[in-house]
TrEMBL record:
GO terms for biological process: methylation. SUPFAM superfamilies: S-adenosyl-L-methionine-dependent methyltransferases. Keywords: Methyltransferase, Transferase. Residues 55-142 form the Methyltransferase type domain. This is Methyltransferase domain-containing protein. The keyword Transferase applies. CDD domains: AdoMet_MTases (cd02440). Pfam families: Methyltransf_11 (PF08241). GO terms for molecular function: S-adenosylmethionine-dependent methyltransferase activity. The keyword Transport does not apply. InterPro entries: 23S_rRNA_MeTrnsfrase_RlmA, Methyltransf_11, SAM-dependent_MTases_sf.
């Protein structure tokens, strides 16, 4: 991006851009993030090809699920954020998925043992008891999750120093899965370099990934954003690290 562009122009552009769905195409040329080495979409496609009934929890705009080349006969997705619902329904027509609106804090609205595969990419939270309940015996849960302290450098650039993270640790996920009666068969971790090339990319990311700076608004943090703009112009891209882990569990 052109470093000479004014901070207010970049901020206003990002503040007006849509953030529906869970695609990040708006950041093309403005930010980059390494991909996890395990290839979540490929793993999902492999599991889907062998499933007869599958559920995608917190599908977002359905971006990952829509790319499955051989979907199962019964394919369902849930989403708890209303702006994503129409996006997901439109995106998932091609794979024949039914999209169900859910209360993010409520139970999954499905019968016991309804699915032989449940997947979830970056869930807001995982209800392990509900996941185990809707899985058939022998079924699989596969999820790429956000790890503890993800994008901490960006959070602290806006909020100041933060205490050590106490949530989203992979070990906690393993313990919760086992407490729900699941058996964890795979756990992998990755720290992924992310670069933001202009302050507009930062603003758009913070509007979309809302847990990075809870309660973020441009007006509330405008002074911090201007400081960060000057830092990017003077020193180059702002670097942060996304924390991810992959967990796979089965219901005995």
């Amino acid at each position: 991006m052109d470093a000479a562009r004014d901070a207010e122009e970049l901020i206003a552009e990002a503040a007006a851009a849509p953030v529906d769905g869970w695609g990040f195409g708006w950041l093309a040329g403005r930010a980059t993030e390494e991909r996890p080495p395990w290839g979540y979409a490929r793993l999902v496609a492999d599991r889907m090809a062998r499933a007869t009934s599958a559920l995608d929890v917190d599908t977002g705009g359905g971006e990952v699920l829509a790319e499955v080349p051989r979907p199962p006969k019964l394919l369902t997705a849930t989403e708890g954020w209303p702006p994503n619902m129409e996006v997901a329904r439109r995106t998932l027509r091609r794979v024949g998925a039914t999209v169900v609106a859910v209360d993010p804090d409520g139970p999954l609205p499905f019968r016991d043992a309804s699915f032989d595969l449940v997947v979830s990419r970056h869930p807001v939270r995982t209800d392990w008891a509900q996941t185990a309940r809707v899985l058939r015996p022998g079924g699989t849960f596969l999820s790429q999750q956000i790890g503890a302290g993800t994008m901490r450098e960006l959070s602290e650039a806006v909020l100041g120093p933060l205490p050590p993270p106490d949530t989203r640790h992979p070990e906690h996920a393993v313990a919760s899965a086992e407490a729900a009666g699941l058996r964890v068969v795979d756990l992998r971790r990755a720290s992924l370099r992310a670069e933001f090339f202009d302050i507009g990319a930062v603003v758009w990311f913070l509007r979309k990934v809302v847990w990075t700076v809870p309660g973020f608004t441009v007006d509330r943090y405008r002074d911090r954003l201007r400081d960060l703009h000057r830092r990017i112009v003077d020193e180059g891209p702002f670097v942060a690290h996304a924390q991810r882990f992959l967990i796979e569990a089965t219901r005995p």
